[in-house]
Amino acid sequence: MQIIEVTGYAVRSAVITMRRKDTPLEFVIFPMVHVASPTFYSQVRTRLRDCDLIVLEGITGRSAGVSALTLAYRFAPRRRRNGLQEQRDDVLLPESVPVINPDVTAAEAMADLRTLPRWMYVLLLVAAPVLGLVFALRGPRAFLDEDMAVDDLPQTLRAEMLADDPVEHAMTGRRDERLLAALGEIHTERADEPIRVAVVYGAGHVPAIVSGLMDRYGYRAREAQWLTVLVPA
Asked: What is the pTM of this model?
């Protein structure tokens, strides 16, 4: 199943609705890209208004290491000619829908990264700002790389290698488990309610969300709607 589609002319995100046969609760998964066109965030916000609860990604607290890593996507929107915008809660979230955040703290995120070999950890911190500058200089076309695509199962050898990347596991492993535990609590407490629960997380987390909801709680992907993330000029 495609989650983020990358073609020669656009990047699209699949909003996935997951349901069970015997309970009315729905999980609506929004695979996010942290830098996109303003229209993409506007479309997501419009759909979030129809939800009853939002489960939102967001590392809490402050850390110099986390700030360095986020430079990879904070640089690109600073060039106005790129027409890109950084994902921000004030732009994305409707005021009327309650929000919960089961994500890790900055201290926990950095503790996980420090389990990597030291050379890999240092390289990661150094490379993030460089990548940010590359994205800023190249503009939207930097996002048309096929490696930006996300599927529930790896489709290429390159994708398989990325899926087994120790950096990826260090950055997402604990966070995915904490998210799935929170979704499990919602399922246990509210499965009999006819509500829509939005899961607003980076696209890289979505394969774990889809497989976790399916394997642990019996939810299946029933429909998907494409949203355009960006179209380079």
From this structure: 0.85
